[in-house]
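Moderator note: this is an archived Q&A kept for reference. The question asked for a predicted structure of one protein chain; the sequence and the answer are reproduced below.
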Amino acid sequence: MRLPTVEEIRALHLKYAPTPEAFDLVHTHCEIVWSIARELIARSAPPVDADLVRTGCLLHDIGVYRLYDSEGRLDHRQYIRHGVLGHEILRAENLPERVCRFCSCHTGVGLTKHDILAQGLPVPPGDYLAETAEERLVMYADKFHSKSNPPRFLSASAYARFVERFGGEKVAAFWALREEFGEPDVTALAARFGHRLTER
């Protein structure tokens, strides 16, 4: 399986980003998620295909660009759709299904058909779950950084509190990911990238 190069991935971001500001927000976030995953791979993660994880980190949020309107405003109400939109983009670019799945299978700690139907989410009903170690690592690393305004890092405790509103099983799923992959040094990462850190 041929994976796109870092340069080709950057070109895809530039192709789909509606504004320079959107590119900076999304592409920087994707690079940060790769920094988090790379740290976890080096320190404590089980064996994974690091090149595939890098590709997944750098492309997982490309669907966000489809949620900007003509005036450069992000439609937060439809944000849950960014994963399936990204999957569609990468499929149209003829990327392998294993790469496309990083988009549709990273939302929260897994989006199930039950979640979609019970909450009336604007996503085609189905299970969008990380299955491979690489998919789980990209999904997990993504939880420690937010594209909020301004962008911020989150501690494991902060994300657990956030996801608790979706049910105890989601919290348990997050702690299981921490058990599998360890915990990144978000304090050092926040200082490195100059973003604030939410610890609780």
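Archived answer notes: The chain is about 55% helix and 5% strand.
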